[in-house]
Amino acid sequence: MADRILAQYEHEEALAAAIRRMRAKGYRALEAYLPFPAIEVEDALIGSAPSAPSRLPYLCFLFGMLAAGVAYALQWLLNGYLYPLVVGGRPPHFPLAFVPITFEMGVLFASFAAFIGVLWRGRLVRLTDDVQGTPGFESATRDRFWLEILAADPAFDPDRTRADLVETGALRIELPEVGP
Amino acid sequence: MSEPLLIGRPSDAALGDELLGTTWRAGGAGWKIAFAITGALTALLFALITYTVVKGIGVWGTNIPVGWAFAIINFVWWIGIGHAGTFISAILYLFEQGWRTSINRFSEAMTLCAVLQAAIFPVLHLGRPWFAYWLFPYPSVMEVWPQTKSALPWDAAAVSTYFTVSLLFWYLGLLPDLASLRDSAPTRRRRVIYGLLALGWNGKAVTWRHYKAVYLVLAGLAAPLVLSVHSVVSSDFAIALVPGWHSTIFPPYFVAGAIFSGFAMVITLVIPVRRVFGLHHVITRKHLENCAKLILVTGWIVAYGYMIEWFLDWYSGDRAEMYQAFVARPFGPNKIVFYLSMICNVGVPQIFWWTRARTSVWVLWIASLLINVGMWSERMMIIVQSLQREYLPSQWGDYSPTWVDIGILIGTIGFFALLFLAFLRLLPFISLSEMREMAHELVKHDRRTPAHGERHDG
């Protein structure tokens, strides 16, 4: 038995309308796959499973600030403490001259946090997943919009869910094989 | 607001076939010739780098007092060219300028290729490049720690951060398109390669949500970063006491010059590319016109920088500064670069006051080449002419490049072109997911204002 059902729609508005109707019917474990980020789909998904706004920007801020602090402390350690040298008439501990590297390291590590964060939260860096290989699913990166309902959803029933999806105007419906 | 950003309303599938097709279609003889020429120049570059490292930088024209010369000119020139890419991808994104969409990927790749060229020079200029890692605070038993109060470690931090952040920003933007390439690959080998590069992207809504949030954060980080990089580069000069360098106008003046030359390079590259690939409806006249307008604006900031420098040299009453600005530069050795900078950086951009010049492909292309020449000359003027005439006449000297200097400069142009051509052939150089988003928004916009249709796209 498949652990999810996938339905294909022609455009983002059809998908958004389908999400609303399926939610009205009591489905909760909904997810969408689309070739570009569409605001209608975002709005329709609000309230269903993983739709909380991304908190990654806070992570970036935290990492950036930490890295900037470490960079400043390291410069103080090397230039102000371990090897105090007067360079260009500047005293060993000279905060103004430490600004460029402090800033650069803050930006660098905030960017690392941003990039790695999206890979982590999006569960990327994988060779395949549960939906790849579903017939027709390659259109999700091309010109079609897909709705996914997990079998874990309390309202899920293979036949009834399929009928419900047909009602929403799905172009095609697939039950991907569960992997070996 | 009269010119459209996208001519016609292609469907998602048509847009995908067109923009991804550039990677599938076999290249003709022209491509082979282009790769052969740029490959030969790249070989020349690496041969000359080897020669320089084996013999020492005495094979360059660099001397005392002109200790910086070509290496630093080329470094500043290349890194400046990179700046327009980040300006387009980050700053115009934050300002919600829709026209950046079709040229941002392309300009970011230009940034990466240009920064790679730039990075060659300071390392070679160290004289003993195998000690380049001394710039970084690695755990060493020598206890001779890098001194971060000098501008060289700032440069090392700024340039390596700039390259890394540009790469992350560019790669993150590529992920959805790499997934599109994976899913439409004609052969299994390509499907596997692009599939690995796509890191398993599947277009899930939750991933898009994080992606959008983070893309905005990266744009917000890259925007001040790009301004900081050339400010740091300018500090190499401004914190020294050499007449013609010691000036507080340098950071904004350098940043404007960088964006100015970078937009010129974008135009130099985009005009042949849209012709070769026939993308006139995606990269429209509006894009070219906007780039020309930004060249005019930043060109005026550069001109203002020149004027403020002259004014402050006079106002300072310092004889060495006045001599530098009013005698050494216009009448001293290598004076040609002074005139080239004035003509190409102040004179040439003025043609962009005319709409016909901004929309004529040939005028734009030739002007962009002249501006690149002008900006290279400006760096030569600042670096070589200043060092030729310092405070004491007993310090004065002269400079001329050797064939190795010129060969390395030409070699980096070839290497830059080689990397860029490879990018054009192997990756979608227009962001497909962003173009789709824009096309859908334009369709919705058309639906709301049926009477006006395409006229309100801008």
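qc> The first strand of chain A starts at residue 4 and ends at 9.
qc> done
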